Amino acid sequence: xxxxxxxxxxxxxxxxxxxxxxxxxxxxxxxxxxxxxxxxxxxxxxxxxxxxxxxxxxxxxxxxxxxxxxxxxxxxxxxxxxxxxxxxxxxxxxx
Length: 95
Fold this sequence. Notes:
alpha+beta, 13% strand
């Protein structure tokens, strides 16, 4: 099992990060492969840290070759295969 913890707080060592780390540690002790990303760090390198719908459908040119593309690929590769459900909280739909 692979678990990706996504910290959306701008505080990399804050309470949200602490709770995610606790959950990932417990999952790791049970044998899961775990990883945590900090959204604030990834978005700092973006030229525009928001979507202005520059193309429809999205052609990915605004984040191509960045850490954000790597995160999108991690989420996409883990969520789009049969038997590997993704659960998101606060703003993402559940699959």
